[in-house]
Amino acid sequence: MGFDLGILFGKLGSSSLGSSEYSSVVSMNLFVALLCACIVIGHLLEENRWMNESITALVIGLCTGVVILLVSGGTNSHLLVFSEDLFFIYLLPPIIFNAGFQVKKKQFFRNFMTIVLFGAVGTVISFTIISFGATKIFKKMNIGTLELGDYLAIGAIFSATDSVCTLQVLNQDQTPLLYSLVFGEGVVNDATSIVIFNAVQNFDLSQITTAVAFQLIGNFFYLFITSTLLGAGAGLLSAYIIKKLYFGRHSTDREVAIMILMAYLSYMLAELFYLSGILTVFFCGIVMSHYTWHNVTEKSRVTTKHAFATLSFIAELFIFLYVGMDALDIEKWSFVKDSPGTSAEVSAILLGLVLVGRAAFVFPLSFLSNLTKKAPHEKIDFRQQVLIWWAGLMRGAVSMALAYNQFTKEGHTTKVGNAIMITSTITVVLFSTMVFGLITQPLVRLLLPTPKTLNRMISSEPTTPKSFIVPLLGNGQDSDLGQNVPRPSSLRMLLSTPSHTVHHYWRKFDNAFMRPVFGGRGFVPFIPGSPTEQSVIQSAHHLVGEETG
């Protein structure tokens, strides 16, 4: 991670540390202090219907950038230099993992096909529209030299939704259907956008043939399946290790440590093998919450739940504070100071393409999804479609990271066209996060105002930590549901009640094969000296007494 303070702390080098090292220490102190300020101010604004902690952190980052810019005489605006490695390797994994760990699994898997439809097919549609629009419009403008690969990269960059901001502006308990659709789509969307972006950089775009197109499609399916299997495999391995070795009999710290490290290892292995770390760690979180979490002691369950949530919370604040300060990077803006109107125009065009590109797949694909659902309450009505369209308009750190990768070299650029694309990306990210993010929650209250609508959407899963005690595709209160579900006698009947049918057969397979090996709900760790051991001993004595009597 690089640090850059410039003139602001140049006079503070009179320490036992070197000048650059001392500046780095000061930078980290200020940044941690700003994170604390974000938490305090976010708490004070908890009841505010417009603000949330992500927007608070973004605003504080912008204000801090302005102060640093003024103090440094206009030479610097941030404490940290934007680093893709810092974002993708250290900040994003805990956020995505915790989302998978806490997600309402019944709602997520019930809408899994719709999520994949939006996240994969929808992203390709959005990418096509944005790339085509950018190519046709920007070639007529004087924004510097951009090649075909740059235009396609623009499509991939602005097709990537902001999953992190979705976690902040949507409430999983109040709107579980919207949350599962928008966030689930966001995870698949980010993976798809990164696949497309890497393909744009690696393939020879001068010779695009049908074979290359099919190769791209095959590459995506390979990435999706292998990343999912890797995440599930890491989660199952952690469950098996903890179930067999009983770490908790000696130390709960080891249980917590192995869960955290195995989750992070799954992400790094995915990156090592050029897979999607986002998909891998997300499904690792889902599997760990279904199996591994139930194999640890009660103390470790409480610890891991809060530890994962805390790490995710801090990483989210870090990202928004980071983006806020980096938005005023004077180096990029200096290239467009002679033509601010052009930069604003490019930003407005990109924002318009984002709006059109998302609308082009949300409404048609929602219609197709509704055709497969028979029950009216399972269909996505028009108001919900509007909210899905709106909540997915926010662009965030993923777009920033991809833009820096395409249009800068080690965070710096010398071309006017590249600088305009960077500043336009920053503008779109700030505008979409602050404006769309601010309006999302009031829009939810406006379009879904009645308790009847909300109750229909709210999942039957409890919101307490006991929500982890539910089966992967069901809840804790419908253990006999499968007995009342009619068996599919035809393909049409199978398609008309897919979730119940899949749920029934999955639960039978889970109970018969998975839980005996990997543990899960109902598994109680046997720890010497614990109440569990004492109750087992008492039961054994009671049985022995009955037999001898």
UniProtKB/TrEMBL annotation:
Query: Which stretches make up the Cation/H+ exchanger transmembrane domain?
Result: 33-445
Provide an example Pfam family for this protein. Answer: Na_H_Exchanger
Which residues span the membrane?
22-45, 57-74, 86-103, 115-139, 177-200, 220-242, 263-288, 308-325, 346-367, 387-404, 416-439
Provide the alphabetized UniProt keywords.
Ion transport, Membrane, Potassium, Potassium transport, Sodium, Sodium transport, Transmembrane, Transmembrane helix, Transport
Does the record bear Transmembrane in its keywords?
Answer: yes
- Where does it live in the cell? Membrane
GO molecular-function terms, A-Z: potassium:proton antiporter activity; sodium:proton antiporter activity
The UniProt entry's GO CC annotations, sorted and at most eight, read:
plasma membrane
Q: Please give a single GO biological process term from the UniProt record.
A: sodium ion import across plasma membrane
Where is coiled-coil annotated?
Answer: none
Task: List the catalytic activities from the record.
Answer: K(+)(in) + H(+)(out) = K(+)(out) + H(+)(in); Na(+)(in) + H(+)(out) = Na(+)(out) + H(+)(in)
Q: What InterPro entries does the database record attribute to this sequence?
A: Cation/H_exchanger_CPA1, Cation/H_exchanger_TM, NaH_exchanger
Q: How does the UniProt record describe the way this protein sits in the membrane? A: Multi-pass membrane protein
Organism domain of life? Eukaryota
Name assigned to this protein: Cation/H+ exchanger transmembrane domain-containing protein
What species was this sequence derived from? Mikania micrantha
